[in-house]
# Entry
Amino acid sequence: MQYILDVDRTLFDTDRFKQDSESYKRDGVWESGIWNQLNPKDYLYDDVIPFLTSLDKESVGILTVIRDYLGDKGVEFQKGKVELTGVSELVSWCEYMKGEKGEYVAERCGEEQMVFIDDEPGQIDSVHEHCPEVISILLDRKGKAADDFVAGRSNIHIVRELSEVSAILEQYG
# Structure
């Protein structure tokens, strides 16, 4: 099984980080030395390392979106976050992209079953539209997603924690 995971609000507690780091922003962008002031490992959710270490590194990749207005600074920031948390050592690849993830995930679809985990319903929709055979998991850590999001749609599930993913995947053998 292949896994593609998002970063913000999936692996990294972005909301808490934003609260703690507001004073390090200049013109809406974090200063380049932010990671000298705050330890990004402190913002990984508790279930991330156990989940990633339970998987074969070669079967796991990171796909994260960079907002257009951030440009190269956004890529630099996300790369720093992924590397300094240690997540990059637990996955085989990391991609930093713009836009919707569906087409990109579809390009990676092969013979092996794929699992896509993200916190954004729009990204789940994009993946489902481009490759409905992918098992898409909406990671809803705050419990705000409505059950009707998955109603009548195969291969889409909602979880609150990464520890719930294995139970879902048991359904697929």
Notes: The chain is about 30% helix and 20% strand. The chain has one domain: 2-170. Strands lie at 2-5, 25-26, 29-30, 60-65, 93-97, 114-118, 135-139, 156-159.
